[in-house]
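tool_call: predict_structure(chain=1)
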Amino acid sequence: MTSLVTSANVESRASAAFLGFAIGDAFGATVEFMTEREIAAQYGVHWNIVGGGWLRLKAGDITDDTQMSLVLARSLVKRNGFDAQDVAEGFADWLKSGPLDVGNTCRRGIRRFMTHGTVEGPYSEGDGGNGAVMRVLPVALATLKRPELGQAWAVQQGHITHNQDKSDAACVWFMRLIQQALLTPDKTVLRALADRWIEEHPYFRYTAYTGPSSAYVVDTVRTVLCGFFETNTFEDCLIRVVNRGGDADTTGAMVGALAGALYGLDAIPKRWLKALQKEAREEIAALTPQLLRLSVA
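tool_result:
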């Protein structure tokens, strides 16, 4: 398996996963909090990275999804593994920088760390948002050869801001799905893994899902999995999910990671790759191989 993990093919698709994540974030941010009808009325079909939206972004700008993921990725590389204290400090520095968008649960968890120094909050049913699962991709890359360790890290990074059973399950299983896509880019295999996920956690059932695309982690996961499995290209997948509206930067980012891992770099539309913020694109290119090297350390 080591040869698979270190192969150029896997590294290329890992880069596609991280770039796809950031692209989905920038693409979806334009229509975040809009309904499907509102999107259709304004855009017909939203198909390009144009910025704007409620955050009034420049075309290609990333939001908290990618920003927090990069904080986690930098810490993993710097500390040669997961260090909750260092990740939390990174989140605190990010919050102090005044980002345009911060989820309420993320803000509350980071402020708890800043005030009390604790890297894990108490269990709370109110922590069922998607802020922990949205940033789990760097853990998936850093533990590609060590999935059991990855499951622990996925939950631990989540607990800095979100401590809730559905959030935990989403972090673990979404990480496993990304890793499976990187090592075995076969949608039949991925569907079998997703079906095992649903057997253990039936509230994530995604087939023909037409419900809300909200920031509630269950809605987010169902939207992402439905869009991923009911399309056959990177572009169609992202357009399908983002045009659902709701928490579109996060659903776009998550499905972009999955689609990138499965379909690879060549499947990402050049217009989207070119539009993505240059600084994010360059940092992702630098961090991805370093994260993969951790997985065989």
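agent: Residues 1-6 have pLDDT under 50 and may be disordered. Proceeding to next step.
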